[in-house]
Amino acid sequence: MEKKAKQCDRIVGEWKGKVDGLSFDLDVAQKETRNVSSELFRVKNAYDESTLQLEEVRRENKNLSTEIKDIMDQITEGGRSIHEIDKIRKRLEAEKMELEAALSEAEGALEQEENKVLRCQLELTQVKQEVEQRIHQRRKSCINKKTWTRHSKA
User: Fold this and answer.
1) How far is CA 30 from CA 24, 44, 146, in A?
2) pLDDT for residue 152
3) pLDDT over 90 for what percent of the chain?
4) pLDDT at residue 40 tops 80
5) Rounded distance, CA 117 to CA 30, Å?
């Protein structure tokens, strides 16, 4: 009986050891479960936050794509405008050259007319001098005739 009691005590001791080991394993497993649960919660929150950020980035990307399209349209329109402005500039340059040629021609004609006027004024001055000389000579001649006529009558 004693042997049986010792054997029972030994079996009870083994089972107590097994129970203690299993209790320890259970505690460790529960602790790990809490840690994994906590990590899962953090990962899930990070995933949700990442999903929200992804949606925000997609919206931003869409807005930027629209903005880029608008800018490209403006650039295309600006390119057309530049082409039209270049055409206008070339046309204006041609008109400027025509006007410069016409101005040069008009200046030449004006110079010729001024020269004609100067020649006419010179001729007029010469004619006036000749007329005044003739008048002066005639007066002198008249005075001389009067004087000669007086002397011949006397």
Assistant:
1) 10, 20, 163
2) 65
3) 69
4) yes
5) 123
State yes or no: pLDDT of 147 exceeds 80. Answer: no
Distance, CA of 95 to chain centre: 28
Cα 40 to Cα 58, 84, 132: the distances in Å are: 26, 64, 129
CA–CA separation, 51 vs 58, rounded Å?
Answer: 10
How confident is the model over 68-90, as pLDDT tens digits? 999 998 888 877 788 888 899 99
- Residue 49 is which amino acid? E
At 97, list the tokens: 């050259």
> Residue 126 and residue 112: Cα distance in Å, rounded?
21
End-to-end CA distance of the chain: 215
Distance (Å, whole) CA 100 – CA 113: 19
Nearest to 64 by CA among 72, 102, 109, 96: 72
The two three-digit tokens of residue 60, written as one number: 């931003």
Among residues 76, 30, 5, 83, the alpha carbon closest in space to that of 91 is found at 83
Q: What would the pLDDT profile of 83-111 be if each residue is shown by its tens digit? A: 888 899 999 999 999 999 999 999 999 99
Give the chain's length: 154
